[in-house]
Design a protein that fits this description.
Blueprint: H1 3-7, H2 12-22, H3 27-30, E1 34-38, E2 43-45, E3 53-59, E4 61-67, E5 73-80, E6 83-85, H4 87-91, E7 100-103, E8 107-113, H5 114-123, H6 125-151, H7 154-171, E9 179-181, H8 185-192, H9 196-208, E10 213-215, E11 218-221, H10 223-239
Antiparallel strand pairs: 1-8, 2-7, 3-6, 3-8, 4-5, 4-7, 9-11, 10-11
Length: 243
């Protein structure tokens, strides 16, 4: 594929962020890249698959998941384009992907062969430093969230997730009030590492506190309810709202 021609077709913000790095890669290595398309629900890589490529998300949204020692699947994070996957494994010389990567919408990726990525990053110290910093920041954020989940109640985890889902829509400029959460009870349970029964109890508690409503089986959040959720998460330590 002609990577630079493809990048010209992307949204301007995404294009600017990707081309910043693509323009530094030698043309002979760019020529080895290929385009991959996924439909929502399709998985690109599974945890413990052999690391053969770095994948750059150019369009769409994805979810990364992992498995705990009990065999349960939990969501590590969700991402919007542009973002790269597999860099940590390649730079750390890991042979296997540390998580699974699944599309949550129609997605397009640029696939970069492992060896081409390694040869480029080794020859470009500035790029190596910048990408390593991004990996460390991302890991720090994820580990902080995971440590918090270990001590939070199921209801507080649900509050956090609903607040973050709503805030994400606000930041992207696509929120419509009241905001309807499209995730199923099972999907919410997977995200916060609890059971569907715990999610159901949490929803009932948040309804009683005036933080969410339920319409036609879906969680609905008004602007005022979001403010209550957000304030509760910011000041939970002082107000003991979940005690």
């Amino acid at each position: 594929m002609n990577v630079l021609t493809y990048l010209d077709s992307l949204d301007s913000d995404v294009r600017k962020k990707i081309i910043k790095w693509a323009s530094r890669v030698p043309a002979n290595r760019l020529s080895h890249c290929r385009q991959i398309r996924l439909n929502s629900g399709q998985t690109l890589v599974h945890m413990l698959d052999r690391v053969d490529n770095v994948y750059i998300l150019c369009r769409g949204t994805v979810r990364t998941t992992s498995h705990n020692s009990a065999g349960s699947t939990y969501v590590i994070d969700e991402y919007h384009a542009p973002v790269a996957f597999g860099e940590m494994e390649v730079i750390s010389e890991s042979s296997f992907y540390l998580g699974s990567l699944t599309a949550t919408s129609g997605c397009e990726f640029i696939s970069v062969p492992r060896e081409d990525y390694l040869q480029w990053i080794r020859s470009d110290p500035e790029a190596l430093l910048a990408r390593s910093r991004w990996i460390i920041k991302n890991l720090t954020r994820q580990s902080g969230y995971e440590r918090s989940l270990l001590t939070w109640s199921g209801t507080k985890r649900l509050m956090y997730m609903l607040s973050e889902l709503t805030r994400d829509q606000i930041h992207r400029g696509v929120v419509e009030w009241p905001f309807t959460v499209r995730l199923t009870r099972q999907e919410l349970a997977d995200k916060i590492g609890t059971s569907t029964k715990t999610v159901a109890r949490g929803i009932d508690e948040l309804k009683a506190r005036g933080m969410v409503s339920v319409q036609h089986g879906k969680i609905v959040i008004t602007e005022r309810q979001f403010q209550r959720l957000d304030d509760a998460m910011k000041h939970e330590g002082e107000t003991h709202i979940l005690d």
